[in-house]
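Q: Structure tokens for this one, please.
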Amino acid sequence: MRKLAVWCLSAAALVALSGPAMAADAEKGNAAFTAKCALCHQIGPNAQNLVGPQLNGVAGRKAAGVADYAMYSAGMKKLGEEGFTWTDEHLDKWIADPKAMIADSPMALAFPGVPDAAERADIIAYLKTAK
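A: Here is the predicted structure, written as tokens:
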């Protein structure tokens, strides 16, 4: 019985450490963003729109919410009109597979997504550093 209790506690600890409760790393997110996102997006004090919109303040922002960015897809504009905002969950889903959310968006056509959940969490942590 004691071995079973120890095993259950060990299993519970592993689940707790491997789930979403793990802290994301904004520094790793910066490196991943630079490698995978910076070709089309900027972030930071002097961020400008490129092929994609600048991403300062994206966490919590309404979809298609950068006023001076003119290249949003019809699908992204529709999300914005419906009041869709970029929560952590929505950002995670978008970064994982943009085509699954909006097949007609330029990002969906050009970017395959980031399959690794920890890397996506790191990118989101980094995005949240730029207001």
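A few notes: Residues 21-127 form a domain with the Cytochrome Bc1 Complex; Chain D, domain 2 fold (CATH 1.10.760.10). The radius of gyration is 18 Å.
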